[in-house]
Fold this protein.
Amino acid sequence: MLDKLKEIEKAALESLAVVSDQSALDAWRVANVGRSSPLMQVFAGLGKLSKEEKPVVGAAANQVKIVLEAALEEKSQAVKNAMLAKSLAEEKLDVTLPGREVNIGRLHPSTQQLRRVLSILAEMGFQVYTSREVESDEMNFQMLNFAPHHPAREMQDSFYIDVDPSAGSGSREDNPILMRTHTSPGQIRAMREASANNPQNPPPIRIALPGMCYRYEQITARSEIQFNQVEGLAVGEGITFADLKGTLTDFARRMFGHDARVRFRASYFPFTEPSAEVDVECFVCGGKGCQVCKNSGWLEILGSGMVHPNVLQNGGYDPKRYTGFAFGMGTERQLMLRNKITDIRYFWGNDVRFLDQF
Ligand code: PHE
């Protein structure tokens, strides 16, 4: 019996020596110290031995069990260490490598500029009114005092939207659908909305209309087929050209700096009379003349004028009682001036290297 135990121990230790992974180790455990292992059989057979043999064999079997369990524990540690070493070698992690930069999203530069303009106008009492980007010819032109074949339409070549003629859209020919060429049609919509609620006594209006406009143009460094505008409109009793000048001078100073000089140049728009374009003194050269201002010392920033009586009428405001002023500015243009951006195509080019700078 004692020889058998010696053999069991020897065989078990030999087979343990070649175990090198966890599953082989588990199998070894079952085979050598498990319930039906030869060693456990010896324990089970102790009862059949004589009184003299029992303590001797029992002690020897216990000794073997202690040896095997110690060997198992040691092997188990060795296997764990080997696995750890292996995974460390395979999944090598170089903690000295620089981290990957997390890209934080942000607002498009145009949106940032739109918000700058709107927040200045908000301080001056102008409320935001958003109007639609797809317009009718009637709103975009006719209600703004552009006659059907008025040459001023050529200032704003348009994207017309094809309407299926079989859809029976009757008057589409006189009133086609187009992408708005400026934010000015929002003037009519805002005035109509306000005057519809109170036709006898429509309320005064002071609004800022932001948004994308579209023109059918050759895309060049200076012109794009889409751009943002912000329109301003103030309508009420007793509003004069002096209010227009004061408001726009104040706006230009808040936008371009408190000592910015401003000038008004007579101009023409069908929907304002009189009309004026507003220039600020070139903030690149301080008025001395440079490339940005093409040596004039001035930069044009917006178009403006007193709302034409026909336009007031179309909005539901009696032009005998009410007057108003309006202005419109391109926000990409302002950004180009501010940041000396030489090509307007950067704005919609989706080049992250450009966008990253804002
Ligand atoms: N809508 C004009 C344009 O796009 C700008 C403008 C707005 C001029 C309001 C006068 C009054 O050129």
